[in-house]
User: Which sequence fits this backbone?
């Protein structure tokens, strides 16, 4: 059988059409730069959607992966393994948690968290305490349970009926939560910063009040830190800077620096409810992923690196504000560390994909958070010169889109 070169057309031929990637296919990365099949170079502000915290092909991660590949790749959870135990010890030593469940993605970490919350309530207070409260515009993954808890109806459409006992209230609205929570509530689930929902940080007073309401109603507080975790906001985990400690944390994306892994750290008393046989995963905690994740944490959990995240955040914001002064294209610029959202002005609502396409044509990779927000989640160690160079390209892309819009 002969193999011909693959292209974007190959995608339409052989891949399920749930994605619509652009024509380019990146084939190589280095630091915060990518190159496509034609050798065109791009500055990467997308970071694999908040995953590549140390950029592409970080030498320490490459070495760790190669070293572990020469030892053992997979054992399943019939056995434990050294990298999983070392990573668990690292996570519990650095967070509020006592014990950790490993899986392969953020959705799986959230699935485990939601199941654990219901199981814990069932074990301690019976089947009636099973309701979960989440927030409008939240995103928690793409399994049936996690799209049900997520606060965006578009991800549930066509998959009904969805699991029952889930309700949603406005984010940063403590009165709405106070009116919704009850003795039937087993958990409240929140992102410290809503990522897919538009890069909206939690108000610290709101987060503290959520914690108090959970305590008052004996409900668990789950923090989804799939996007905010592992240094993204300038703390190892965002809950630290908020001063609010959850009962269950979910982490993935950046945890593996590009290698698929997820984790659910929690307290020992809660973890007891995931007793033998109650939950599982074949690949979860595999040696390759755990070895890489520990290397990621060893590098990211460094005061100098985390301080650099906050300094680079300011550079991004200053550059975006300068673009806005020239073009009046943004209604608001929101950021938490290197999770940055630029909401488009009223007259440009719904046009975010056009800005992405224009930027990509010029050699800059961005993201969106809905149709109205440009999102940036670059490497935490992106060089300042790459930030400035990328922003110069974004400036050109904005000018190009506005020129077309004004001529329309």
Assistant:
């Amino acid at each position: 059988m002969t193999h011909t070169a693959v292209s974007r057309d190959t995608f339409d031929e052989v891949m399920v059409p749930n994605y619509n990637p652009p024509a380019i296919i990146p084939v190589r990365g280095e630091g915060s730069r990518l190159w496509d099949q034609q050798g065109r170079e791009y500055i990467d502000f997308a970071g694999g959607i908040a995953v590549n915290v140390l950029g592409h092909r970080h030498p320490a991660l490459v070495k760790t992966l190669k070293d572990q590949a020469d030892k053992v790749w997979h054992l399943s959870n019939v056995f434990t393994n050294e990298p999983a135990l070392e990573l668990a010890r690292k996570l519990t030593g650095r967070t509020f948690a006592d014990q950790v469940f490993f899986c392969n993605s953020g959705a799986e970490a959230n699935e485990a968290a939601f199941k654990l919350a219901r199981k814990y309530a069932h074990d301690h207070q019976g089947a009636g305490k099973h309701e979960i409260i989440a927030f409008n515009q939240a995103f928690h993954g793409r399994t049936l349970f996690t799209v049900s808890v997520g606060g965006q109806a578009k991800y549930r459409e066509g998959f009904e009926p969805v699991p029952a006992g889930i309700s949603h209230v406005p984010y940063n609205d403590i009165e709405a939560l106070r009116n919704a929570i009850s003795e039937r509530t087993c958990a409240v689930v929140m992102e410290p910063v809503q990522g897919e929902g538009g890069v909206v940080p939690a108000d610290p007073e709101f987060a503290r009040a959520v914690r108090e309401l959970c305590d008052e109603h004996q409900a668990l507080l789950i923090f989804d830190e799939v996007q905010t975790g592992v240094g993204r906001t300038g703390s190892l985990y965002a809950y630290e800077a908020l001063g609010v400690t959850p009962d269950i944390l979910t982490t993935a994306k950046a945890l593996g620096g590009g290698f698929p892994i997820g984790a659910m750290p929690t307290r020992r008393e809660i973890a007891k409810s995931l007793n033998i046989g109650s939950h599982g995963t074949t690949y979860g905690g595999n040696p390759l992923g755990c070895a890489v994740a520990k290397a990621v944490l060893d590098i990211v959990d460094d005061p100098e690196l985390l301080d650099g995240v906050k300094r680079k955040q300011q550079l991004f914001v200053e550059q975006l504000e300068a673009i806005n002064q020239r073009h009046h294209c943004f209604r608001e610029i929101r950021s938490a560390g290197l999770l940055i959202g630029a909401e488009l002005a009223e007259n440009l609502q719904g046009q975010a994909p056009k800005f992405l396409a224009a930027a990509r044509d010029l050699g800059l990779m961005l993201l969106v958070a809905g149709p109205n927000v440009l999102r940036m989640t670059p490497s935490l160690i992106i060089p300042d010169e790459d930030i400035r160079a990328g922003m110069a390209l974004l400036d050109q892309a904005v000018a190009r889109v506005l020129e077309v819009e004004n001529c329309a």
Observations:
- Residues 71-300 form a domain with the Aspartate Aminotransferase; domain 2 fold (CATH 3.40.640.10).
